[in-house]
Each structure stands twice: as C-alpha cells, then as structure tokens.
Design a protein that fits this description.
five-stranded parallel β-sheet, Rossmann fold, alpha/beta, 2 domains
Length: 322
C-alpha cells in the first residue's frame, strides 16, 4: 500500500488496520504526479491526501485495486480514469462534520461580533467600544448556505438555535428535503441578494470552480460576510481582496484558499476585514483518527473482496487475490 502523501503525526492507525491484510506500507510525500509515476506503479492500493492522482499516474498502475482519499472531496483524483481501469475510488464523507460546521459557525460569530478586528485594535493600544460600530443583533439575520450536504445540515441546526433564518442553494436537493431541516430553498441569485452571511459548502467540480467571483460578490449586500470552509478554488481570492478594499461586502472569513499557503501573503496583510485560518476546519484529534482509520478500512475491504462503505465510483468488485 502506498501512502502518496499525508499530514498526520504518525501512520500507526493505518498500520494497525492494514496489518489484517498483511500489507506493507510505503510512505511518500509526493507533491506532483511525476513523483508518483514509478513509486506507485506496483501498488495494490493508494492512500491519498493532496497528491494529484492524474490519468497519467493511473495508467501506470499495474496492480492497483483501490484509491482511498483521506477526506471528502476527490477533486485531486481522476475518478473517470480510475473507473476505466476498474479501480475503486473511496472517500470518507462522514468525518469532521461537527468540526467544519463548528468552524464555520465560529467564523460567522467572529464576523458578527468583529472579534479579530477588535482584538487587533486593543493590542495596538486602543480601548474604545465605538470601534465596534456598526454591529447588529444576530437573531433574525439570514444565513445562506451554498451546498446542502452533511456539513451545512449540521451547521443549519446550530445556526437555527441562534435565531438565524436559513436559506440554501443546492440544485441537487429538493425544497421538501431542505424544509425538513428548517431551511428554505433559494436560487443562487436570491441567496446572494438576501443573505447577511454566505457560507460555502459545495464540492469542487467544474461548475463550482470560481463560483464566487466578482459578479457574485457584487451581488451580495454591502453589509454581508462571506465564509468558506469547503474548497479554495470555489472562491476567487483576488475578487475577495478587491471586494474588501472597495467595500462591496463587509468582510470575509476563509479557511481554504486557491493556493495554500497564499502566494502573496503581503497583499493580504492590509485587509483588516479578512479573517484567515490555515485549512484547519477539519481538525480535531478525534476527526483525524477517524479519517485515518476509515480510509485504511476502505482499502482492506476492497482488497479482501468486500464492498467498501464509501465508494465514489461504480466498479465491479474483484474477488480477494489468492
């Protein structure tokens, strides 16, 4: 089993799970497909974090039966190429639901109460409550959710307890299903126009890449805040920077960026209404252990002829190798 790359303190969890399959673990820290071409060619399975598993890599795999993604999104894996080769792709769609929804809610509260801004003012030697103005009561404000999967549904329940009105845009979820969660279905344009807080929870697919650019930001209220804890390339950082400088929106809170770390950090330092965290919304000790364990369990299930719990593509299962 080849671990293409990882960000974990250790791989003891994987080793314990994979021991049942008699697996040898080969650990890389690949950042390009070129680094994977030879190193992964004879792997029976890949465990993938951020490394690009492109068609070129997949066509070089001679024995691989499963590519298991450490995470929810699979935008760094060419799923079509894997399917053509009969390789199962799996993910872990039910980990870090509480963590990411908590982080998004924390960002919303930080924006609403201007916590980071006020902290910086106090640390700079200024003590004046008038710096908070204007500030508005949270109850009765509108939270717009872009995407309505597991994480935004969890966030909706938490936000509803704070008295927020909830809208969601997701073309694949019915109005009745949203209503069952206390959320009203909206069009993309309606959500942008009405929401006081726009929280992005969509997967990164061709239709969502660059979804939040200048046009979307101009359509938001000048008093609104943008929050992104999903995928960086959904939001144009350049457009957000311009929106903040020119006052199209009141502020933004981003946990993920198009390029991580940001290519021009100096350009962001002057944006006082921009709150940034380093792609950490997924993290807790518990969520990381769950992620490692479930990804490794998917590998074992495929290699022993069982159906994985979280298949991304439809590939006929092969019997366990003798």
């Amino acid at each position: 089993m080849v671990v293409t790359d990882h960000v974990f303190p250790s791989l003891d969890v994987e080793r314990a799970v994979l021991r049942a399959a008699g697996a040898e673990l080969v650990v890389l820290q690949a950042t390009s497909d070129a680094e994977l071409l030879d190193a992964a060619a004879e792997a029976d399975a890949l465990l993938v974090c951020y490394a690009p598993v492109t068609r070129r890599v997949i066509e070089r795999l001679t024995r691989c039966r499963v590519i298991a993604r450490y995470g929810i999104g699979v935008d760094n894996v060419d799923v079509s190429a894997a399917t053509e080769r009969g390789i199962v792709v799996t993910n872990v769609p039910d980990y870090c639901v509480d963590e990411v929804s908590d982080h998004a809610l924390g960002m919303l509260l930080a924006c609403a109460r201007k916590l980071a801004w006020l902290d910086r003012r106090v640390r700079a030697g200024r003590w004046d409550a008038r710096d908070a103005a204007p500030m508005h009561r949270l109850r009765g404000r509108v939270l717009g959710l872009i995407g309505f999967g597991k994480i935004p549904r969890c966030l909706a329940a938490k936000a509803r307890a704070l008295g927020l009105e909830l809208l969601a845009f997701d073309p694949y979820v019915s109005a009745d299903e949203m209503l069952a969660h206390g959320v009203r279905k909206a069009t993309f344009d309606e959500l942008l126009a009405r929401a006081d807080y726009v929280s992005v929870h969509a997967p990164l697919v061709p239709e969502t890449r660059g979804l939040i650019g200048e046009a979307a930001l101009r359509a938001m209220k000048p008093t609104a805040y943008l929050i992104n804890t999903s995928r960086g390339p959904i939001v144009s950082l350049g457009a957000v920077a311009r929106a903040l400088r020119e006052g199209w929106i009141a502020g933004a809170a981003l946990d993920v960026l198009e390029t991580e770390p940001p290519a021009d950090a100096d350009a962001l330092r002057g944006l006082e209404t921009l709150l940034l965290t380093p792609h950490v919304a997924f993290y807790s000790e518990e969520s990381v252990e769950e992620l490692q364990r479930k990804a490794a369990e998917s590998v074992v299930r495929v290699l022993t002829g069982e159906t994985p719990r979280y298949p991304v593509n439809a590939v006929p299962m092969r019997p366990e190798a003798p």
